[in-house]
Amino acid sequence: ESSPRGQLLANFAKYMTDGITGWSETETISLREQLLDLIVLLMVSEKNCYSPAYETSVRSAHRERAITYIKHNHCNPNLNPKSIAAACGISVNYLHKIFQAANLQVEQYIYSRRLETCKNLLLDPLHKDETVQQIAYKTGFSHPSHFSRVFKEKFGMSPKEFRYSPGKFSDVTAGQAGFGILSGAATRTNQ
């Protein structure tokens, strides 16, 4: 027994192939594009929480691929919109557009991922012997002062204060103090 998603795809493909001899070349091309769009939509729709309802699944899939790339590479200090776009086979301009369509900003998303990783490392007893500066470098920040500033903006305290107060502040959540990336709204534009 297949899922409703699988049945939808199978029924569309069957409808398309059963009538293939009756379709004009233009209709066949259009149906092929719609089939591809449906496949992509079904592949990304369940896990994609950033996709506006009016957006095509191809744009959504491109954004999802970029987000996945950022998640896997956010600790690389050379990660930037240009390297992300190149890795995803899209232009930098298009990368910014697909993020903006979901009310996100590329750089903000990178910083948000890095800050979440920093927060986790600061709380992790396995990293207690590493300095805040070492953790900043390990997670892709090139300048410790910049790291401290954006960390404080997001979590309301310095990384050092956060580290030594984990019992009180371990429930700090994403989306505070100007970095609403993980809650779905990019509100800060200045880095």
Largest sheet: none
Percent strand equals under 5%
Oligomer: single chain
Question: Rg from C-alpha positions?
Answer: 21 Å
Structure description:
The chain has 191 residues and is mostly helical. It contains 10 helices and no strands. The longest helix has 20 residues, at 25-44. It has helices spanning 4-18, 25-44, 57-73, 81-88, 92-100, 106-123, 132-138, 144-155, 159-163, 166-169.
Name the features.
disordered C terminus, 191 residues, single chain, mainly alpha, elongated
Outline the fold blueprint.
Elements: H1 4-18, H2 25-44, H3 57-73, H4 81-88, H5 92-100, H6 106-123, H7 132-138, H8 144-155, H9 159-163, H10 166-169
Write a concise synopsis of the structure shown.
The chain is mainly α. The protein has helices at residues 4-18, 25-44, 57-73, 81-88, 92-100, 106-123, 132-138, 144-155, 159-163, 166-169.
